[in-house]
Amino acid sequence: MAGPIQHPTAADATSLAVARRHRATLLGSIHAFEQALAAPAGDPGWRPRVSTRLHALRGAFAEHIVVTEGADGLYAELLDQSPRLARAVRVLVHEHAAVAAALGALQRRVDALETTVDDLRAWASDLLRDLTRHRQRGADLVYEAFGTDIGGET
Asked: I want to staple 82 with a disulfide (CB 3.0 to 4.6 A). Which of 4, 90, 145, 149 is the partner?
């Protein structure tokens, strides 16, 4: 059974504001990558564009890790307010490592010219699904801790 909802302190509000802004930036990078993937693969610029957008997504995700896991990050604030959520935070941190590794592996596959477009799109779809689930679990955790929506964008 969950404990009472904790309302954010001034410091929490700052980490929440940073996380909320970054969440929007990360979503923009995800959408840009999805658009690049969905473009006609026969276009000679398709693979370089996918590679560039994936590189940007990797950077945005690396920043997401800093914003959430850093000493002054969202998870530190969340655990100060709601230590009962430590297991859920550990799960998200573990997912960070897995998603970052998958993004790196996908980048290598995109840059390897022998990898087929169909394979790239399949791997990217799996990764994007995992990333979407991770983002939702993070939003759910913030709501459970603070009773606030970190960004219910569509």
From this structure: 145
Take residue 70 and report the two structure tokens written for it. 């850093």
Closest CA to 67 of 10, 20, 132: 20
Structure tokens at 78: 């969340």
What's the whole-model pTM score?
A: 0.86
| Residues 62, 55: Cα–Cα separation, whole Å | 11
Tens-digit pLDDT profile for the chain (154 aa)? Answer: 344 444 444 444 588 888 888 999 999 999 999 999 999 999 999 999 999 999 999 999 999 999 999 998 999 999 998 999 999 999 999 999 999 999 999 999 999 989 999 999 999 999 999 999 999 999 999 999 888 777 655 4
Dihedral sign computed on CA atoms, order 37, 40, 42, 43: negative
**Would you state the structure tokens that stand for residue 37, as one six-digit string?**
């993937």
Around Cβ 60, how many Cβ atoms within 10 Å? Answer: 19
Which residues 6+ apart lie within 8 Å of 72 measured at CB? 15
End-to-end CA distance of the chain: 29
Question: Residues for the chain: how many in total?
Answer: 154
- Spatial neighbors of 79 by CB under 8 A, at least 6 apart, are 85, 86, 89
